[in-house]
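Worked Example 4.2. Consider the chain below.
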Amino acid sequence: MQMVKIHIPEQPDSARALVEMVRRGRVDCYRDNIYIVPEPALRLLESLGVQYQALGRGGLDYAEKALRDSVATQV
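Applying the procedure from the previous section yields the following structure tokens:
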């Protein structure tokens, strides 16, 4: 499955999108409204009218690496 790292710049849109995305599948959340979501979530965001920026793509290992990297930077 292709995972996409996205940024949703507007806080109200980000909150609404997060609620809808977690109802439908896996979502990895990071600070500053950054998420890693399955590619089908992009169609959901478009149907909700949520503006987002795609920052990168990869497989499940891409999402796992991003999570490990974010934890390591906090130490």
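The radius of gyration is 12 Å. The longest helix spans residues 60-74. Compare this with Example 4.1 before moving on.
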